[in-house]
User: Fold S-layer homology domain-containing protein from Brevibacillus brevis.
Amino acid sequence: MQGNTRTIGKKSAVIALALSFVLSGIAGGGPLPAKAREESVTKAVSFTDTAGHWAAKDIAAAAKSGLIKGFPDGTFRPEQSVTQEEFLALVERILPAFAGHEPDAYVRNTYLTHAAGRWSEKTYTHLASAGIMPTGTPTDSLNRLEAARVLLAALGHQSEGEKYRGTKSRFFTDLSTDDESKVMTVYPAYKMGIMAGYPDGTFRAEEKISRAQAVVLLNRLARQIEELYPGTVSEDEKKAMTQAVSSFVGKVMDQEKIRRYDDLVAYVKSNKLPVSESFLREHFSFMQYDVYDYIRFPRFNELIYYAKIGTSKYRMTVQYYSGELGGSVDKTFYLSSADGKTFRLIGKDE
Assistant:
């Protein structure tokens, strides 16, 4: 856990710079000079308009750590709303680094048109490969539903929504279970502790996110990343894990072009590949059907989280955009290794 804590700490320094200009109202004005950036991170800050505010402690802690900076007049303006592009820029800086790739024409025309030419265009393009794409325009105020959607994708946990497909349990008085798309976004965000409801039993999906709420949500995101992806995984282990999975998927789907499950099992056995049949069932069961659609596999240059969950067991979650058919998805692979150098692809319960 110490390794994770150090990582989050390094990210917080970067977040500090991001929030310094994104939440201080100069998002389009470029970064601060080097000296000013350093001072904004290290100098203790107090605000004239946060005393007694419900998020005062979070804001004060964030200011003390250099996470945020206020306006020149000494205010923080906690109730001022945050735009979608501002929130995405902040989220991007919390996430692990990933290369990403150029979006296809559909993504560019559907999700990136409004960001073209704006200061946030690179952020939108980068996060699109990870399937992190809000539905509004960059200058729209971020509402609670969009925040939940973005945060779930940022955590690689959008698939959690499947647990609530068809549910009749009603968590909030203002959210009908008939609205399945909202339920599958709001419920997992709530159950995972990313977002909370209000004391009156409502969720208020359309309510705008304030600057104060953005600070709280970013803190929760950082904590959730640390909790959901435990253990220390070295850079060499990450590279070896990624190579093990990506090379197998590429060989099977692109080079050998195997499309039937029995052929896949036979191929693995005849070549004595370090892949268990449980792994094959978890990720290639769609091949058992004569006619099938399948969610495209990732390219493995998208957002990837690594975790060590046992003495020799690892977990790798990829959050990515799988094409128009699949949309934004997360896919989790399990691996085992005795030396951290060679990996066997295994099933979740092995």
The two ends are 24 Å apart (CA to CA). The chain has a mean pLDDT of 87. Residues 1-81 form one domain. Residues 110 and 135 are 9 Å apart (CA to CA).
